[in-house]
Specification:
This protein is α/β, with parallel strands linked by helices and 216 residues long. It has one domain: Rossmann fold (3-Layer(aba) Sandwich), CATH 3.40.50.300. 27% of the residues lie in helices and 27% in strands. The protein contains five helices and nine strands; from the N terminus they run E-E-H-E-E-H-E-H-E-H-E-H-E-E. The protein binds guanosine-5'-triphosphate and magnesium ion (MG). Magnesium ion binds next to helix 1.
């Protein structure tokens, strides 16, 4: 991936740094997914995001992994911010709510924006709110999975930030698509830092590989 840096320090430890952007329509659960992943916390009160950058750091079998996770705004379209998020990220999590088919349409648009700007980058499509039973505006699970996995060759994960279902699986899938050498264990030590929301530019892109669907 573009800012993946695998470097040896004194010949022993490796460092890998990924920047992940989380995009999707308003209120689909982007911030909730990040909060559940980094802090094991879910808040049922909604607070609109403008833009936030988080950092998770892990030690996995001698590899120091840093994940910078960019949480973006769903409510207001900030085209310049979105463009920068797309150009500066190594991998993408596109979230829709399984209860709202309009939010899946937004994922389609976002994916088009990404592939128009970037050649081949790892993308995981997430159907969130799997804890809510389906209704008339729900997205059909099989259709969404087939579009994401077969047509788009992306990863696909059905999740619930509320119940903490498949949340680590989203990041595992993204790392797998990014050819990260070790699986991300749910038990890895988590450390979180808020960071200023400045973006840096990238120069090369890691090749997308085998995708998979995780449907619970
Ligand atoms: N039942 C259920 N509710 C959820 C889930 N994930 C998020 N929510 C709720 O949905 C609302 C929106 O969640 P957020 O995480 O703030 O959504 P967002 O996509 O970050 O929204 P913006 O920042 O406006 O783009 C909140 O009230 C959450 O508590 C879920 O998996 N299940
Ligand atoms: Mg948010």
């Amino acid at each position: 991936m573009s800012r993946q840096r695998i470097c040896s320090e004194g010949g022993a430890e490796k460092e890998v740094h990924y920047r992940i952007a989380v995009l999707g329509a308003a209120e689909v659960g982007k911030s909730s997914i990040i909060s559940q992943f980094l802090y094991d916390r879910f808040n049922s009160e909604y607070k609109e995001t403008v833009e936030e950058l988080y950092r998770g750091q892990y030690n996995i079998d001698g590899i120091r992994l840093t994940l910078d996770i960019l949480d973006t705004a769903g409510h207001h379209e900030f085209p310049a911010m979105r463009k920068l998020a797309i150009s500066s990220s190594d991998a993408f999590i596109l979230v829709y709510s399984m209860t709202d088919s309009n939010s899946f349409d937004e994922v389609k648009k976002l994916r088009e924006d990404i592939i128009a700007q970037r050649e081949k980058v790892p993308i995981v499509i997430v159907g969130n709110k799997s804890d809510i039973s389906s209704n008339v505006s729900s997205v059909d699970k099989e259709t969404a999975a087939s579009i994401a996995c077969v047509d788009w060759e992306s990863g696909f994960v059905q999740a619930s930030a509320k119940d903490n279902t498949n949340i680590v699986g989203i990041f595992q899938e993204l790392l797998r698509l990014s050819d990260f050498p070790q699986p991300l264990s749910p038990a890895v030590r988590r450390r979180r830092m808020s960071m200023p929301t400045t973006s840096s530019s990238s120069n090369s892109i890691h090749k997308h590989s085998r995708n998979s669907c995780v449907i619970s």
